[in-house]
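ok so i was messing around last nite and threw this chain in just to see what happens. nothing serious, just curious
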Amino acid sequence: AGYFESTVKLTKKVKSAMTYPVAVIGLAVALVNVLLIFVIPVFAAMFADFGAKLPAPTQFLIDLSNFMKAWWWALGLGAYGIYFVTGKYIATPNGRRQKDNFLVKAPIFGNLVHKIALSRFCRTYATLMRSGVPILRTLEIVSSASGKCQIEDACSEIAKHVSQGGQVSEVMAANPFFPPMMKHMVKAGETTGNVDGMMNKIADFYDVEIDATVAALTSLIEPLLIVFLGVVVGGIVMAMFLPIFQLGAVAGGLQ
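result:
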């Protein structure tokens, strides 16, 4: 019960942190589509009466608006097709491996995904070992519960090594997915006969790190989203009002 409580708490924490940026980005996409499909054609009809060449940003937006009005269904089908094909590819072993590698190495969220995977690995391993589950069965369950190819590969290597009389830390020491601190703590746990206790300590440490990372990302994402919205929406507004700012030149057919 304690294990599931901590797992659910961690999952909810990450999801709640991602809700705000996802909602804002979705709202921005909807707003841009409304502007392109419904608002810009009104300006385009007004500018057409001028009979003069429009500024390049304005002409680009008008062309984009006309394209979206004529081919919105093709864009929708294309987006769904990309989503469907990507989902099918990710379901394959090779696609799933590439997805996991990409998530761990992603510029902003990769560090968070990595820490979550390590925390889940340590917490599951410690809980099963403390409950008296044999180590090979523990590794099998941890591999199935990890959801990451890197953990599954590591568990497979550890199981082979342990079955031949080796130690967990020896395989972890050669695996770059596990950070040095974790390798040293597992080695110390094996030396003192307290591997499950050390794994719990590592999981607690990464839970704290995840909290700090989520808080930092939340603080970073908010201004980035504000700048993003300002640039996108402000750019559209400026492009559409640019001919009005140059109304005399445009109306007179001057360049």
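not much to say yet. Residues 170 and 187 are 8 Å apart (CA to CA).
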